[in-house]
Specification:
Helix content is 14%, strand content 29%. The chain is an alpha+beta fold. β5 and β6 form a beta hairpin.
């Protein structure tokens, strides 16, 4: 399996999230959000693949503008994508974000026969 893609050349401006390719085919090349875009010694995660010749970066390009420049995209394998997703979940849990779950009570009420709706003794 190919782990990098570097067909064609790219142009990107400092502070922009849009990368334009010439002679690229990022869709057919299997480029996906989460893959690493690399140029001029810098790496930025890809947020979206818009077409064969346009990608959106996850953050603004931090380097100088590049015109007709060489580049590469490091394709992230499925196992690494899964590990990253798991790490994101663990980080969210560690920060106390629970995705809408109510906070746990420090002293829960005990469950009794009379506290259960519809309880009626048999017999």
């Amino acid at each position: 399996m190919t782990t990098t893609y570097d067909t064609g050349t790219i142009s990107v401006s400092n502070g922009s999230t849009t990368v334009t390719g010439v002679g690229t085919n990022w869709v057919a090349g299997g480029i996906l959000p989460g893959d690493d875009f690399r140029a001029a010694g810098l790496t930025v995660e890809i947020a979206a693949v818009n077409s064969a010749t346009s990608i959106t970066l996850a953050r603004a390009w931090p380097g100088g503008g590049q015109t007709s420049a060489n580049y590469s995209v490091r394709l992230i394998d499925a196992g690494e994508r899964s590990l990253k997703a798991l790490n994101d979940i663990v980080a969210a849990l560690g920060s106390g974000r629970r995705g809408g779950a109510a906070p746990a009570s420090s002293s829960p009420s005990p469950v009794t026969k009379t506290s259960c709706p519809g309880y009626s003794p048999i017999g």
